[in-house]
Design goal:
Order of helices and strands: HHHHHEEH
Number of strands: 2
CATH topology: Four Helix Bundle (Hemerythrin (Met), subunit A)
Number of helices: 6
Structural class: mainly alpha
Strand order of the largest sheet: 1-2
CATH architecture: Up-down Bundle
Shape: globular
Strand content: under 5%
Length: 210
């Protein structure tokens, strides 16, 4: 089916409702994390991010892509990812260093600005596969971080390179591997988006009125 958005005045449909639920669930997770309700926050987080795949599939499968959804969905994605990383930075032993959160948030803000500019001038700035896999790895890093807090009660040490201070088990190696993969793909996908935007600008299409 076509991905062409249906009229922008259509706001309430299944995909946008799921996105709204994801937004509410993210707020609940943000409340639970500072209260040290790690397992509850983890369950809510997993439920929330799972709706991202469902609403995208539903929108494409049943031709319910909307202009509102194209704005609301990435906004909520950024809220739940950036917010979760910020809260995890504040928790001792999470394995998420402050500079990691800065990289994640900086990339998301930059891509948001670029997307707004390109689409304002009539370009298409839909998510690409590196961007989608970046989201998967970011979610995996957050989940592993919360698992660390739940299983080890903050006994680990957050260093600039990830998790340390625990017995060097496969879990610690997996966490640090996924975390560095997240950082690498976050930077790489952001670079790809910048390249796409520069090619769009050089094409001269920005001179036309949207």
């Amino acid at each position: 089916m076509s991905d062409k958005p249906i009229p922008s005045n259509v706001i309430v449909n299944v995909p946008n409702t799921l996105t709204g639920i994801r937004f509410i669930l993210s707020i609940v997770a943000f409340v639970l994390l500072p209260l040290n309700q790690i397992w509850a926050a983890l369950a809510i987080f997993i439920l929330a991010v799972s709706t991202d795949w469902i609403d995208g599939y539903w929108a494409r499968r049943y031709n319910q892509v909307t202009q509102f959804g194209r704005i609301f969905d990435p906004f909520v994605d950024k809220i739940i990812i950036c917010g979760t990383f910020v809260f995890l930075v504040a928790m001792p032993g999470s394995g998420i260093a402050a500079w990691v959160a800065v990289v994640v948030m900086g990339r998301e803000m930059l891509v948001t600005v670029i997307r707004s500019f390109v689409e304002q001038h009539g370009g298409d700035f839909s998510a690409n596969w590196p961007g989608k896999w970046k989201m998967v790895l970011q979610c995996a890093s957050a989940i592993l971080s919360m698992l660390t807090l739940g299983l080890h009660a903050g006994q680990g040490v957050t260093t600039w390179y990830g998790l340390a201070g625990l017995e060097a088990t496969w879990f610690v190696y997996l966490f640090n591997f996924i975390l560095w993969g997240t950082i690498g793909l976050t930077l790489a996908s952001g670079t790809i988006y910048i390249g796409d935007a520069l090619r769009f600008i050089r094409s001269g299409k920005t001179s036309s009125t949207p």
